Amino acid sequence: MTQTQTTAPGHVPTGLFIGGAWREGTGGGRIDVLNPATDEVVAEVADGTPDDAIAACDAAEAAQPGWAATPPRERAEILRACWETMIDHTDELAELIVREQGKPLADARGEIAYSAEFFRWNSEETVRIRGEIGRAPSGNNQIIVHHPPVGVVLMITPWNFPAAMITRKLAPALGAGNAVVIKPPKETPLTALRVVELMAEAGVPDGVINVVPTSTSGDWFDAAVDHRAVRMLSFTGSTEVGRVLLRRASDRVLKTVMELGGNAPFVVFDDADIDAAVEGAMVAKMRHSAETCTAANRFYVEAGVVDEFAEKFTAAMAAVKVGNGLDEGVGCGPMINKGAVEDIDGLVRGAVTEGASVLLGGEPLPGAGCFYPTTVLRDVSHDSSIARAEIFGPVAPIISFTDHDEMIRQANDTEMGLIGYVYTRDLAKGLRTSERIQAGMIGLNRGAVSDPAAPFGGMKQSGLGREGSTDGIYEFCETQYIAASW
Ligand code: SIN
């Protein structure tokens, strides 16, 4: 059933935000934002054109020098006010996320706390951007190194974290003194628009943040990337799209930070605390309805404990209530759209054809909305297509292992290297295994690693650069060296 509603819930803006003002797109078009739990239209937002993307870059270019010249302490105080206002608006923002993205309300509230924390953390980093001074080895001069802002930054963000994937980029970019142009995903633009409205109220000057949703991403990007003021691209999304953007960004030799796909191995050794491993597996698989690039994608479980793990994990997955994220007790919301459900279904069918047995779930749920049940597969072969793909849904393939070296080889037999998980009571073995897994992040006896104070990012084709931590703000800076004599 489809019902049209032309205004967003509450007072959420639905225009483009350019130069501190709300406006319609020059093409006059609108994008329907759908609730994936009900198929209803939540709102229509302005559909930005390439001309709007250029106008946003012009506005950022005009605002950039003033913002870069603003004292770091003032920029930091504004970021701190952004943290406060997001926390104050937790209920409203979380509900908005559920309506346009579908995740359970508890996850959405968690996302707002996580998103806001990027502002607080980076407000603290903003006043601590360091340089260096040292005498040249020749003794003839001093070497001075400092870190000015990079310039106008393009940000392209995904639908799975409508708030956090924006603030993780925006907070350090603003802290470093850059102006930005954001293309939020067409599936979840409302959260982005409301967050920047709150940020403007918190004191971010006009033109420093510009937001232009669009239904024509390719044309939008082609126009923006060629704008003379754009100096950097920060992207979170699939490796496939990331490669295309990187090729295009290379025409202008842009600085890039790319957070791309994952295919996380989750390793359970036979000396692990199995109850703790199951608890960690539930977090690593199911947080945010399993639609995360950090989601555990392949469960390598040592043969001696595979029966116990499979039984307890299947029971825990079976206990998850799948439904509308606004409903009480729901632990897994809808997938983002029907296409996502079809993709997951295709992977599960393929795995079964390739010999996997279904312990739980395995068929899309009928009726309105985009629901797929929690699903556990056993006897999955490492070579099957499901172990090669990023599932992005509540499906857990279990692969039994006996030989440790062969398990590590299989865990690393992927072009992705975002994250891995290891469960063992033997800390030395856990650390040795962590070092051997080719991934930018490891959860050792932990099912969640994300933290604004830690470096988030991948090895291999999972990405370039890091977000969060002390490194995050320097990604949005240049390095200038001055050879000085006095
Ligand atoms: C992602 O899935 O893209 C991000 C996950 C996280 O920050 O935890």
Description:
This protein is α/β, with parallel strands linked by helices. The chain has 2 domains: 16-260 and 464-484, Aldehyde Dehydrogenase, Chain A, domain 1; 264-451, 3-Layer(aba) Sandwich (Aldehyde Dehydrogenase, Chain A, domain 2). 38% of the residues lie in helices and 21% in strands. The protein has 15 helices and 24 strands. The protein has helices at residues 50-69, 72-88, 90-101, 105-126, 164-175, 189-201, 217-225, 239-250, 274-286, 306-318, 338-353, 385-388, 404-411, 427-436, 469-474; strands spanning 16-18, 21-23, 30-34, 41-46, 132-135, 142-146, 152-156, 180-183, 209-211, 230-236, 255-259, 264-268, 296-302, 321-322, 330-332, 357-360, 375-378, 395-401, 416-417, 419-423, 441-444, 459-460, 463-464, 480-484. The strands form 7 sheets. The protein has a 7-stranded mixed sheet, with helices on both faces. Strands 9-8-7-10-11-23 form a 6-stranded mixed sheet, with helices on both faces. Strands 5-6-24 form a 3-stranded antiparallel sheet, with no helix packed on it. A hairpin with a 2-residue loop joins strand 1 (16-18) and strand 2 (21-23). The longest helix is centred in the first third of the chain and has 22 residues, at 105-126. It is globular, with a radius of gyration of 23 Å. The chain starts with 15 loop residues before the first strand and ends with a strand. 53% of the residues are buried. Mean pLDDT is 97; it is low at 1-7. Bound molecules: succinic acid. The site of succinic acid (SIN) has 8 residues, from loops. Succinic acid (SIN) is lined by residues 160-161, 165, 236, 292-294, 450.
